[in-house]
Write a structure and sequence with these properties.
The chain has about 400 residues and is mainly α. It folds into three domains: about 110 residues, no CATH class; about 90 residues, no CATH class; about 80 residues. Helices cover about 50% and strands about 0% of the residues. The protein contains 23 helices and no strands. Helix 6 runs parallel beside helix 7 and helix 20 packs parallel to helix 22. The chain starts with 5 loop residues before the first helix and ends in a 17-residue tail after the last helix.
Length: about 400
């Protein structure tokens, strides 16, 4: 093509400066634009329209622009460039950086790295500039005056852009339900900055839960008022979804056997079991009931129960807890005739159930203590005799 033909060049620079087109270009098209951009700017260094599009494409080409054009139209050119590429704001003439329209153009274009702290202090009380900035980057609210931070609509816009902006809002606005609700969802520990009165308000918290926003459940529950940490309507939906949050709940919930039994249908992690209330883990009948549902809870019984022979004998009758876990805190049981009688009865009962046609007389005098000591390789880390032991 003729690189001196204005209409052809204008058509090309419009295409190459459009961000949407850049992602569609083939490698050969990219190479062509790289090759001709300098030729274009030199040939049309005094053509305001072509120069504008070329600077949008590559701002470093400004060094080839005619001084007369810059002297006459620099502000107009910068406004044109910044409306699309706000990130070049740090590169423009210092005399233009505190021009209100220039600032608004730069921030409106989506320049996330715009340094608000670098602008003249007189603009930090300017609502139009502040609104343009926080719509682009909500947390930049922090750089503006207290007067701006008291502007409800502006703060709401900032929080909608980035929930963490609530940190910089006026204290009165942190109690505003609409603003606080807009802040709930996402990351950043925003609940630390929301009014404690709101986080103790059941209806407000239910609105958070029913919202479609992402909720950091642990962060939210940690921030709730103490009155809500014992409220079944608030806590149970979280626990049913994630039992590992039990440690945050009020002790009245952690000691409630009916709740724990329900949660055990979905949760059996050590983190969950450790959070069960001490009153329940010390309750003989409660723990027997829970162990019958899931033997993995046995190690979390209180030390008093784990050293109570009669309790351990009851657990042994359940026949679902490993000998290793039963005796590791009370090894004297291995020599206790009552313990061995129940153990051997259970072994025989199991064999009657699964091996009716087998000769299991070899197990009649089975001594678990002796077998573990003599054949440790036959047992897994939980003290269970492995399937490989008889192979």
């Amino acid at each position: 093509m003729n690189t001196n033909n204005r209409e052809s060049v204008l058509s090309i620079v419009k295409y190459m400066s459009n961000p949407e087109n850049r992602y569609k270009m083939t490698q050969s098209e990219i190479d062509y634009c790289t090759k001709v951009k300098q030729t274009f700017i030199i040939n049309f260094s005094n053509d305001k329209e072509i120069v504008g599009y070329l600077l949008r494409y590559d701002f470093t080409l400004i060094k080839y622009v005619e001084e007369s054009l810059l002297k006459e139209s620099e502000r107009e050119l910068m406004l044109f460039v910044l409306k699309q590429n706000g990130f070049v704001y740090p590169l423009i003439n210092e005399n233009l950086k505190n021009d209100k329209d220039i600032i608004i153009s730069a921030t409106s274009s989506g320049c996330y790295d715009f340094d608000v702290n670098s602008i003249d202090n007189k603009f930090k009380n300017d609502r139009e500039i502040a609104l343009s900035v926080v719509k682009n980057k909500g947390t930049d609210l922090k750089w503006f005056s207290e007067h701006i931070k008291e502007d409800r609509d502006l703060v709401l816009q900032a929080v909608k852009r980035d929930q963490r902006a609530i940190r910089y809002a006026n204290d009165a606005l942190k109690k505003d339900e609409e603003i606080a609700l807009a802040a709930c969802g996402g990351f950043g520990h925003v609940y630390d900055y929301i009014s404690k009165d709101l986080l103790s308000d059941k209806q407000f918290v239910l609105k958070i839960i029913s919202s479609k926003s992402y909720i950091d459940e642990r962060d939210l529950l940690n921030s709730l008022g103490d009155n809500l940490k014992k409220d079944f309507d608030i806590i149970l939906p979280f626990l049913q979804n994630n039992g590992n949050l039990l440690d945050i709940a009020d002790v009245s919930i952690r000691n409630n056997i009916y709740i724990i039994k329900e949660l055990m249908k979905r949760s059996d992690s050590s983190f969950f079991f450790r959070a069960i209330g001490s009153s329940l883990t010390s309750d003989r009948y409660g723990m027997l009931e829970l162990i019958s549902l899931n033997n993995r809870i046995f190690p979390y019984a209180s030390s008093i129960l784990k050293n109570d022979k009669s309790f351990l004998l009851e657990v042994l009758k359940l026949d679902n807890v490993s000998i290793y876990n039963l005796v590791k805190d009370n090894k004297n049981l291995l020599d206790d005739p009552d313990f061995l009688t129940i153990y051997n009865d259970n072994v025989k009962q199991d064999e009657d159930m699964y091996y009716d046609n087998e000769d299991y007389s070899e197990f009649d005098n089975f001594d678990p203590n002796e077998d573990i000591m003599n054949n440790p390789e036959d047992y897994d880390e939980d003290g269970e005799r492995g399937w490989w032991a008889d192979n």
